[in-house]
Design goal:
The structure is a homodimer. By secondary structure, chain A is an alpha+beta fold. Chain A has helices spanning 14-19, 33-37, 122-131, 133-157, 162-173, 187-194, 198-210, 226-233, and strands at 44-48, 53-55, 63-69, 72-77, 83-89, 94-95, 108-111, 115-121, 181-183, 214-218, 221-224. Chain A has a 4-stranded antiparallel beta sheet with strand order 1-8-3-6. Chain A has a 4-stranded antiparallel beta sheet with strand order 2-7-4-5. The interface between A and B is medium-sized, with 34 and 34 residues. Chain A binds a DNA duplex through residues 1, 161-163, 186-188, 196-200, 202-203, 205-206, 219.
DNA sequence: CGCGGAATTGAAAGACGTCAAACTGTGTGG
DNA sequence: CCACACAGTTTGACGTCTTTCAATTCCGCG
């Protein structure tokens, strides 16, 4: 399931920013060539294996991150010790924006899949944001995007019956290719996303399989009957 | 319950910004005297009675708002027609930040109490934000604050059993004065905040009253046994 | 081939939603 | 001033969904 290719090289990559595969949709999309020359504090590329932690809540570190590949969960622990997954970070997303304001991280960030990311020094981003209006606007956009996503997370994934929540989660995880396939997570993580128990998540997913709405095609990979799910998602 | 004092005056108040009672904690806290002189597009003060709508989701209007007095709910409607309250705006909070990016409003904003607010033109705020670093930083702070609040809303108010959610909501609504009192909302609104039904909300609150944890002292006003609620909030 | 963690399943209890009726307080009109 | 109508709240009864706790099965890996 996991191809473990830890990248140990911590390179100071200016050239690579310019050539970056995801650059057109990345935070730095609006940077001019000459801007890259002014980056002195190195931008480090790092890799995480599934399950590894990127940062902890409360930790105070002047870095934000762009995800290049993989999947990161932002987690909060509840008083009773259980966890709730608050948001997912996907490739081209940025996390750790709060460090731009000198604040500690708000969540635990944990890799759900093997991941690669770029670590950006908060100072550098702050300075570039002052000098480059496009980057600055892009930053605001990211902030707003995170907020919109948080609100959607609440209304889609924490509202209504468990079946509906699962239907909406799977739809959200299914790219609109055809045939529609999606990569699910452990039942425990699904529970932590939806605010339901592991068993309930398991029961419902097993049931969807029996109904033929999901068809297993690999470890936690399914082919999806999107129409049936869409139907489930807003009515029983 | 409601003292209806609709403010009809839509004044172009520069002087009043400087003298504003909430100015020290307002968005414009960092503005210099000379900055106020550069505001040409008028800042309008408006008032809403409980139940009135400030703006609709999808509406495209270049204004954001600071709440001076009262309480505003940000609402999303679900496919099935019911509503979910996504966040509350309290005095000194800002709402409608998305218009700074030229985007339509993400929510319906409805007054839960009689409210007064200032309407700020997005252009003006954008310009001032470019010219004044303190204001600019304050804006980012507000954005981050909204995001943190959204995450807390999810973990506090949409997680766990209905009793716990209600306990946490009441605690959150109770200022730390003594004796601790709080102003509740209609049972329907409480349901929409917590993702439970009106009846469940009513049952539990009625039950808390019978247990003496809440004691009615006015229309939807209660004296609160905070210790008992804190106890409820993270265990059964 | 057996081990261990994850997933699934079962049974029973409890929580919550649904539908409907009774109750309360408030404002209105007689 | 009282009776009534209305909207919100409370309560009841019942069914369904979800959790809980436990047992079992499945699957990847050593």
């Amino acid at each position: 399931m996991l191809d473990k290719i830890p990248l140990k090289e911590a390179w100071t990559g200016l050239a690579d920013c310019e050539q970056c595969a995801i650059r057109k949709s990345a935070l730095f999309a609006g940077l001019r060539l000459e801007d890259f020359g002014t980056i002195h504090d190195p931008i480090v590329q790092t890799a995480l294996c599934a399950g590894e932690t990127l940062y902890h809540a409360g930790e105070h570190s002047p870095h934000l991150f762009t995800l290049r590949r993989g999947l990161i969960k932002l987690v909060r622990y509840l008083p009773d010790g259980s966890q709730r997954i608050v948001r997912l970070i996907r490739p081209t997303d940025v996390t750790g924006l709060e460090t731009l304001l000198g604040k500690p991280y708000e969540h635990h960030a944990v890799a759900m899949q093997d991941s690669e990311l770029c670590r950006l020094p908060a100072d550098t981003v702050n300075r570039l944001s002052r000098e480059n209006p496009t980057l600055h606007r892009e930053l605001l956009n990211r902030w707003q995007q995170a907020l919109a996503e948080a609100d959607q997370w609440l209304t889609d994934l924490s509202t209504g019956a468990a079946r509906q929540r699962i239907a909406r989660l799977i739809l959200r995880l299914t790219p609109s290719d055809s045939p529609p396939r999606c990569q699910l997570f452990s039942r425990e993580e699904i529970g932590a996303i939806l605010g339901i128990t592991t068993e309930t998540a398991s029961r419902i997913i097993a049931d969807l399989r029996r109904q033929g709405i999901l068809e297993a095609i690999g470890p936690n990979r399914y082919q999806v009957d999107t129409a049936a799910l869409a139907n489930l998602s807003d009515g029983p």
